[in-house]
Fold these 4 entries.
Entry 1:
Amino acid sequence: MSARHQTIAELAPRLASGTLSAEALLDECLAAIAAHDRDLGAILALVPDARAEAQACDREAREGRVRGPLHGVPIVVKDNIDVAGLPTTSGCLGLSGAMPHRDAVQVARLKAAGAVILGKTNLSEFSFEIRSRSSLGGDVRNPFAPYVTSGGSSGGSAVAVAAGFAVAGLGSDTGGSIRVPAAYNGLVGLRPSHDLLDKTGVAPLAPSTDTVAPLARSVADAALLFEVMGGAASFAPIERRRVGVLRQAFGENREIAAACERACAILADAGVEIVDPAALPDEVLPIGRPHIVDAEFADAFDAYLAANFLPDTAPHDLAAIVAEGSHLPDYRDDLERRIRDRAKGRDAVLSYHADLRTALEEMMQAHRLDALLHPTSMVLPETLDNPKGGWAPELAACSGWPALGVPAGANAQGLPIGVELLGRARSEGMLLDLGAAIERGIGPRRRPSLALSTYR
């Protein structure tokens, strides 16, 4: 297997010892980008000094010095997260020159741990949707099925990791933006407890539910990245854990339901007790409700524009972007409405979030559950437009609880299927333990073929 398709756990010892060159690994990734990204649309910009950083890692390895657990590992960053020296565009033409003051906190932590930041990735513009389409980069296409979306909003990071353009990725998740593209691209996606990880230098969508998080090829890699970013992910036995199956979130796709049942069987074989809890009350389901993004985006993004960028490199506010028309045309109505109705109904939405969190806690207590299991998405994408993925990812977003998405197989056409584990606040370690058991039972990660004939 090419080094660019391996996990951090496989690569790190070789990079640290110098038996694998960080520059050679970077070159493998860059060659894959040159060969395939014209068809996939994952990368918006490459970091100019990435080669110098890789060369420095190689020199240090020869001298017996290791920067940290990510020494020489090439990583991509969603382009709503600051990387010093490159614009942070959120996929928007109006922000194509917006130069941040410094690295985002999480980018700085990855670099301090030895990562080589390779590039910035395409996304759903402003992180609005669960497809990935932007006025700067167009659509991000799924490498397993190039005529469907990669999912979003962190689709570019997911595709880059799945396709071997980088070994891991950094993204953000407000309502499913890590977990949905992880599911559609056969990756592990961790949404941490709200406000656990520092989001300084990440463009806001809705501060009450925004998180910053990793996309990885394995649960172990996700755990390592989470720890580097400021989390704690100690592993422990999972025997006698109780996992509730949230069947009301399954939808009608039989292949997705079968993947969830397979994940449950794997957990049961590992000693986990699988429970069918009562359904959540219909009145608390996140269906057809006002969204916190509508209430928080405009004020939060305007404040971000005012404070985050070097002078004269970014518009003063969203109104200026709309006036110039320098955004995805599809978003004009949403932008105008969110600017006009800013903060409207915020208290009511947050009150609903509290009600949902209470209902989840009551279910967990009544059935003595450690976690819930459900599909990340009720459907698989069929076009480049937004799939009707369902409400399940909003459970983590609205409650503030952590969630872990892991691969659970694929449909008959080879498109990956993901399942999600949801636990109480600060239960990331336990979710990672459960996810690792599913991963072992499912077997090796699926990789897209990237045969050029399938893209043209």
Entry 2:
Amino acid sequence: MAGTLGRIGQLYAIEARIRGKPPDERGKIRQSKARPPFDALQVWRRTIMETLSRKSDTMAAILYVLNR
């Protein structure tokens, strides 16, 4: 889980650095810097969802985030 939280922290740090920059620049930075940790989170999500009951609190939290 620490790896997951670390990747989320990376995404927040990237967003903090690009805040206020023009949209096209933010998009380029997101593609180059945020894509790898985001993709890793997607792999984690797919892996963990295969092991959880649809009725578990963790699954409910994951589905909540995906729907936002």
Entry 3:
Amino acid sequence: MRIAIAIPCYKVTRHVMNVIAAIGPEVEVIYAVDDACPEHSGKFIEEHTHDPRVRVIYHAENQGVGGAVVSAYRAAIADGMDVVVKIDGDGQMNPALMRHFVRPIARGKADYTKGNRFYRPESLRGMPAVRLIGNAALSFINKLSTGYWPIMDPTNGYTAIHSAVLRQLPLDKLERRYFFESDMLYRLNVLRAVVQDVPMDAVYADEESSLRVSKVLPEFLGKHIARFFKRYVYQYLVRDFNIGSLYSVLGTLLCLAGLLFGSARWLHSIATGLPASSGTVMAAALPIFIGIQFLIAFLHHDVSSVPREPLCTEVVDDA
């Protein structure tokens, strides 16, 4: 397979040359995207590398990590690449792991692979506690919004994707900033692409991350909620109406009916000073209990509906 590497370059001049030097000969093209870097990383790379595989792409304005990766994706599609691996230029992602990301795609077992720093307890050594808690919370929210329940560490930027899947993605609609990786998972689920985690260790160099969990968590939460409802409408109401659709509709209606009836009787009790009878309490509680059971059944159905058949089944024997 023709493999390309995408490296977003923004304030990474201290590490990017070591990253490029560690990329193996199996890679055909290396796209280094200067995302309007104040350190002029593109010129720095051109002046210091002798690797003929390196192609520098320049952005006149900063577009964020998503914008940089999308530019590399477009170049890879135009050049006829088969797989595009995205790694950062700050030295926190080991290029030697690349074959583990490419192998499931080459063997027709996945359309998209991504790193998972939570797979082994040993991999979490050195991860700050705030990042550990923040990533765990975002991982659970991401499961709801994208439908990829087995996937953890959704903000991990070490990824690989089959170019045939790239051609089906709406690249113009992808998020350009920190939500890029999560948005990719949402778009991939719409296509019913198979995503697979690849275990990797958490590595922190001397680069200071501009990602602040306290700042992005509320923003991410809003975007995840919006994508959950978009995915639900498309997957359970537009594309198909199945048993999961029935569970979710009935569960929601029963919970609302119980809450509304119970609230009305509670307000009546306050106004009249008369306590509600046990029968009235049960009439309000029973629909809620049954509705919750239906919603749990819906979640169980959603978990079992994770895409399992890859869109791209081409197999490379020596992968």
Entry 4:
Amino acid sequence: MIKLNLANKKVVVVGVGLTGLSCVRFLKAKGAQVIAMDSRSELALKLDVPLFLGPFDGNRLNQVDLIVLSPGIDLHLPVIQKAIESGVQVIGDIELFAQFNEVPVIAITGSNGKSTVTHLVVEMCKAAGKKVLMGGNIGIPVLDLLEQPADIIVLEISSFQLETTFSLAPLVATVLNVSEDHLDRHGDLEAYQNIKLSIYKKAQNTVCNRDDILSYPLNSKATLSFGFTTSVDGFSWDKQHNRILLNQVAYLDAQSCLLVGDHNMSNIQAAAALAKVAEIDDESIKQGAREFGGLPHRCQTVSLIENIRWINDSKATNVGATLAAIKGLMSDVKGKLILIAGGEGKGADFTPLNECIGESVDVLITLGKDGNQIKSAKSVSYSVASIEQAVQQAAQLASSGDTVLLSPACASLDMFVSYQQRGDCFANAVKELSK
């Protein structure tokens, strides 16, 4: 692979969060002349490179050799587009990584399930005795992984990162699924889909979801597939016996896994397919699947009080994630399903939720900026002003055998710093019920 020659090149890093800071360190180590920019006018941060705060300076951007754009900065900002028109190359941290990495990569993207599948693959590789590293849109900034020895690197990659990535050539790549998300930045579903599918362009192998045509590579065949539909080849689901199949042969019983719900059975299939293509042995794949208990804020049972199950799915920041959570849990819900939803909708169309909520949700509680748009899905629903009020309302309505699910279908930033804070507030409010 031809590596970027960064020595003495004038480079500006735009955005100095964790990713941006890792880019500054990497570029300086390669001998580049680095400056940094951040749109925040006040920032308590000391760098050993010039730092310019506030509105981005177009003149400076137009005069450098390279712009390294942090994923939180919109590529379509006029000042960035003008720099591109002036001939300045714009890349991101994943592209920098791709230019210098020599370790096999498993690359994972999709609207939902990325983090769970990424962690599952890591556990499967560990079970096989591999030295495995994880990063990208999760955990350690990807450039910091280049400094560590590894047999394999597992990357979760967001659509924002894929926009500025051109050279990544994974050993195996997957788009887990595609549903409306980040349309406030990408414009429409087709543009968003095309960005996701770009992960396949230079992949040696592909793992694809048979049940989601939007996630399939254009004009090529999957190396291995997964899904709930029956298939002679690939991973599939035996609903009658509650088990995962490989090539129509029993592979893994769901009862032996800590993860629950149909969506997690899909996640396990995807991870197993990725690991298998990466030549991880079947016993290690099964061991990793059995021992992984899930991630915080992703359909995580936070309490079982008086036989009422409280589930924190705060990571469900889009409609597709909430649909997956509701459908995935239905086989485990014995009484009423009480849904808490709402927040910052990011321009999404909530219509797909209406039928699912109407059929599967018994009680709907909404909150946040766009909660009223979701409220129309149920003739009788409750509007509240806070997570604490939502929990109190749910507690009054729930009885033994019921399930209360926080799965907002929205981002959290209208009311919280992050989805993690939203989930923690939910868990704390539930904890208060037992006092």
